[in-house]
Amino acid sequence: MSATGAKPIGALDEESAAQAVRRMFDSIAPRYDLLNHVLSLNVDRLWWRRAARRFHEVLARPDAAILDVCCGTGDMTMALLRHRPRGARPIFAADFARGMLARGARKFAGRAVAVLEADALHLPLRDQSLDLIVTAFGFRNLANYAAGLREFYRVLKPGGQLGILEFSEPGGLLGQAYAVYFRRVLPAIGRAICGPISGESGSPYNYLPESVGNFPAPAELLDLLRAAGYSACAWQPYTFGIAGLYTAARAQVS
User: Residue 95: which CATH number?
Assistant: First the structure.
């Protein structure tokens, strides 16, 4: 059975899991962008842009309220901004890892972005206040996936849309080859670039393949979305299923 939330090594409960994830991402924040681009061979840029295009219609509305949650260093936010018209309402960019958020804030300088240091499970936003929530490669790190979906549902307006861009594990020969890269090569590269992290065993990039392996398969996450009350739930694989975009909506009031 898939994990109900992120479980870094040593975490005993949801609170300690969240604290471990925060420390992990704060520790690699200075080299996070370099690591992402090197490890994905720059394919991550294409994924962000493709996900943003999927929501062009709502992004093109100047008054739409948009949240990029678990925004990290802000690359998804930057992709969303490409679809916002001049003078549009600022996008909320939220993350609970201060080191990551600080680097994102530098990218947002002079742009229509409001930065929020906030936990995705406890958003400082009103009920039914958002038209769109997007998260890119951050949802997997939540300590409780079902609670995260419920919190997103709370702040979405009726008819509001949700997009979750996440890794998955492809099948077949490609999946086998990718598993070798992901579990053996990727941690070694991450360790070489980041170096040892004080107080942690090995590199935070040992956590990445483990977190993907423990993450619910697409069919399971779609079931979690439906159980949380979402409608129009779907998954679109990217790059042979290495990643994919989950989409869903809060039902309109009848």
Answer: 3.40.50.150
